[in-house]
Design goal:
Length: 494
């Protein structure tokens, strides 16, 4: 329990002071924001500060900060430290600077920001990866809430025909929320969704406090901070790929840029972007603690993360309260899936200069997006290992996208003579994480297994990842230097 409390202290107090530090580094001012300057009644709309905060939280908090920590806690109580530290130093920083840099660039989506600060070549690579991530995110967030509704609310088999009816209803909502102006659908129903989310999170948190920490200890008693993972997985990099959204998520960049178009004043940015990621870290801490308590009470550690959601909810909130908590978990992916598709529409429109004021063009582009989404959903549901494969690629691309965003932030800060190391350090760390993971994992290169080494070792993957870190550092410095020189030339020509 002490470690859990320390983690919450780091998250709240550390987040408060480091958030103010990040705000000072960026330097918000009184200039007109895109919501005011470019108001169009569709995507550029001024919304109230509290509503922007709530929408941002619901946009970024999918099933990741719940399913990820439930699986991540199998590595041990170390999660109670890594989640808040990572959230403060990396995740919240990522969300804040992406949102604020977007506001300084007329609410541009991340691909356009990457193009501006890192070049067209990098933008082409990034655009393909982010489009794939948005598509995978949307599909995952049809699949997971649909299964939770059928299994935990309706009490039916997730493989029954009813599942496709539920999927269809969720998809219809996504289509509507993607096409209509942001304040007409999302801005109106999210407050109700937010109430469900907050009440369910508080309910589980009270249950954890009621337990008194009696069961918040190392699952396998192999050390103070670490547990032996049931599958023998290495803490680095697997923990950071597994927990992902509770610490840092590249997906969040696409959501911050959406809200950058509805924020009235720049000084509201820290509350909207930085603090809402802290709130997601709090949610991750709660579900990690709930899972640890039940695992230590005897729940089988091999129980799937989705099944654990229902078990944790009913254990800490009773039958009725448990259903309410499950409803909160269902709300999370639905309120991330709709904006994932919306962000994808805006990214493609921005890339190909497709006017989104026209309802006909919004509908046409949305159809182009939803057709491949349906194909992927059908594959994931009809294939025995389809969803597991989908989730692994989703987790990897999510962190890879975050690395691109951190690199963009670093170049931005360096070319504006600001403290760029605050984004460079997490960028280098996550470069090592994603590189070592994809070199080692079966869904990637599987190098150790390929060369007949211990499949759980990282004998080859770690050294190669270290080389990638060095190359990444040199690349960022080169890009920043070239941009600085371009700015100097442009200034001389004025």
């Amino acid at each position: 329990m002490i470690l859990f409390i320390i983690g919450l202290f780091i998250l709240i107090v550390g987040g408060y002071f480091y958030g103010k530090f990040c705000e000072k580094v960026f330097g918000p001012d009184d200039r007109e924001t895109p919501a005011v300057k470019l108001h169009d009644g569709v995507d550029y709309v001024v919304m109230k500060d509290w509503k922007n905060k709530l929408i941002e939280l619901l946009n970024i908090a999918g099933t990741g900060p719940i399913l990820g920590p439930i699986q991540g806690i199998l590595f041990g109580p170390i999660a109670f430290l890594t989640i808040p530290i990572g959230c403060v130093l990396a995740g919240s920083l990522h969300d804040y600077f992406v949102g604020m840099i977007s506001m300084r660039n007329d609410g541009a989506q991340v691909p356009k920001l990457v193009s501006k600060y890192m070049g067209n070549g990098m933008n082409k690579v990034y655009s393909v990866i982010i489009w794939i991530l948005m598509l995978l995110t949307g599909v995952v967030f049809i699949y997971t809430p649909g299964d939770l509704i059928v299994n935990d609310i309706l009490g039916m088999d997730v493989n029954s025909s009813i599942i496709w009816i539920v999927y269809a209803i969720i998809l219809i909502y996504y289509v509507v929320s993607t096409i209509f102006p942001i304040d007409q659908i999302i801005g109106r129903i999210y407050p109700a969704f937010g109430a469900v989310l907050i009440i369910s999170a508080i309910g589980v948190f009270i249950g954890i406090l009621r337990d008194g920490g009696a069961n918040l200890y190392n699952i396998t008693n192999t050390g103070l901070l670490f547990s032996t993972h049931p599958e023998g997985q290495r803490f680095i990099p697997v923990f950071f790929i597994t927990v992902a959204c509770g610490i840092m998520s590249g997906f969040h960049g696409s959501q911050a840029t959406l809200i950058s178009r509805t924020v009235e004043k720049e000084n509201q940015g820290r509350g909207v972007f930085y603090n809402m990621m802290l709130a997601e870290g709090f949610i991750a801490m709660i579900w990690a603690a709930g899972a640890m308590i039940l695992f230590n009470r005897g729940t089988d550690v091999s129980t799937g993360a989705t099944a654990m959601v229902g078990i944790i909810s009913r254990e800490f909130m009773g039958t009725v309260g448990g259903l309410f908590a499950i409803a909160g978990v269902i709300v999370l992916p639905i309120t991330s899936g709709d904006t994932a598709f919306r962000a994808l529409r805006l990214m493609i429109a921005e890339q190909f200069n497709i006017d989104q004021k026209s309802p006909q063009k919004r509908v046409t582009l949305s159809l182009v997006i939803f057709i491949p989404a349906l194909v992927i959903l059908f594959f994931a549901k009809s294939n025995a290992n389809g969803f597991n494969l989908l989730w692994r690629y989703f987790g990897f691309t999510n962190q890879l996208v975050a690395v691109f965003a951190l690199a963009m932030i670093t170049v931005y800060l360096k070319t504006h003579n600001k403290l760029y190391w605050i984004s460079l350090i997490p960028a280098l760390f996550y470069t090592f994480i994603v590189s070592s993971y994809i070199f080692h994992a079966p869904i990637g290169f599987g190098l150790e297994a390929r060369f007949g080494l211990d499949p759980l070792s990282y004998t080859i993957s770690y050294p190669l990842a270290a080389v990638c870190v060095v190359l990444f550092y040199l690349l960022i410095n080169k890009i920043a230097k070239n941009r600085q020189e371009s700015i100097l030339v442009a200034d001389k020509l004025k």
